[in-house]
């Protein structure tokens, strides 16, 4: 089939009046038009992505849930990702590596961010009141080597810097799903949760992660994914975590649990 026209061409084909109206509404171009409407200033929150897709990047439903709850909480959001190659590319229809492909974490993350994203190297504590890391295997493959090395993993240099800088500044850090391993590795003595510590017949298929967290020197706290007990708040370190897709459960439970994490992160900012 013939290639699709460029976005600007598609707009123009709808008529000059529509094109002009959209350009006036979004003087920065289409990326600006796709961004959230401006509102009264709330907490400024950085969201760190690790690609696009559960098996080799950011879990998209988790990222969406984080962004929805931040929007509802009145936060100003800027998304970031490291400008590095992915560990590998997974064909999500088969659950197998696509051997001939290579992708960039920042470029893939831009799909979720609708183009409005910056290199993680530009993220500073001075510009933000909190930082949140959605889950997905990208946290264990692209932000760290946890998927391969377990307790002996290394964390991406920029990710480590961000975690240490926010911790030192006393600014809250939110993590969900597998991403709490990043805090467990970098922040000595942190308390986190990835849910339960036993598989329980497949309900908690990644329960072994809790053991690795303990080996990293962090404290693991057993938590449910449901709205009743959905997040753990380490008040000393200002680290907030929730299990999300570490549990096999209904999507709305995961959405609500992430909402509790976001709510506690925003509460810790004091804004």
TrEMBL record:
One GO location term (cellular component): mitochondrion
Keywords: Mitochondrion, Transit peptide
Compartments in which it is found: Mitochondrion
InterPro entries found in the cross-reference section: Class_I_gatase-like
Species of the source: Sylvia borin (Garden warbler)
Chief place of localization: mitochondrion
Name of the protein this chain belongs to: GAL3A protein
